[in-house]
Amino acid sequence: MTSISPIEPVKINIVMAGSTGVGKTSMLAAMYPSLREQLHNIRYNFVPQDEDHLVLTNEYEKLQKLAQGGIEVVSDYVGTRGEKEFVFHIQPRTSESPDMELHLWDLPGGFYQDKQATRFLNDSNVSFLCVDAVTLMERCGIYHNRINMPDEIKDCYLKSNLHPNHIIIVCLMRAETYEQDGLRKKLFQTFDEKYSTILSEIKKQKNTNIFVGSIQTTGRLRYNKIEVTGSDIKSYFIRHQNIKDYFSKGCDTPIQVAIHHSLATVKSTDIDNMKLIKKDYPPFTRFLWFMSGYKEYWERVARAKRLSLLLKEMEKSINIQSNQSQENCTFFQYHPLTTR
Ligand SMILES: Nc1nc2c(ncn2[C@@H]2O[C@H](COP(=O)(O)OP(=O)(O)OP(=O)(O)O)[C@@H](O)[C@H]2O)c(=O)[nH]1
Ligand SMILES: [Mg+2]
Q1: Is the CB of 272 under 6 A from ligand 1?
Q2: What are 307-340's pLDDT values in tens digits?
């Protein structure tokens, strides 16, 4: 009798990396409705666990109000207090068990100062390295080290045991001003100047692939000014005069890159590899409905087909590019690092 392996969902462990206040939790909240809609179109449900639907919807409403409400938006906020794990099931409408399970750890930025983040990075498959684009770009980047804490974050990465296939997805947060003013190329260049040494070091030691893209979670705002009082640094934004509607951009793409990467990694061993599936189930099991294993065989075949479709769908939307053409950057873009 053939031993039948249970159908395990493909699991991804994602850690949100980045200093306090750069917009990690906001990105998560803005990602949720748009990814849910996209997956719905390909017959998948995107299901958060327990009360997380309410938590995320609440956060999302706050973001919408911020973009539609008053003229001035100050980055004055109460940050994440402790670690929070969000679990999402990517579940086919026709099945009771999920095809994929995303475990997403939202950490407070403070966890990178005291190195607590290291234990979350250990064995994670993907991390979103969130960088505040405003402090990177404005006032010649003089507040960049204080706000983005690149060295502390690098230390956490270097001290951790990343999964062998770990990828870093850099998210340039609050990038709306630079998108509207055609400064995206400058943003990527500035990022490259400030981060290429750090990321090359991580890449060399941990053998990770790195993707970079820009994110706006609070709609069409425009950077106005930075105000510094002692150790407190606040960025002010004004609402774009002509555009009233909430308009987030790029928030679900990091997750799509993560899903794409994970599916591409397991593809050769399971997904859409019919030969492998058939090897586990001899013909009499596959074709005689009363044999044990018959149902599992057909479920596995159906799952392999679905995941293969999901992989193709993600491939279409993320538009990973291996060149540096900055103009064609509606979607996440693979941004090769200049090794110095
Ligand atoms: N202008 C602008 N503001 C943003 C954007 N994303 C987030 N913010 C604002 O930035 C502030 C901080 O966002 P959070 O999502 O709480 O930041 P965080 O990284 O989770 O912070 P910690 O939990 O403290 O680590 C909030 O006031 C958000 O409204 C964006 O894309 N543009
Ligand atoms: Mg947070």
Answers
A1: no
A2: 888 988 888 877 655 444 333 222 345 444 443 3
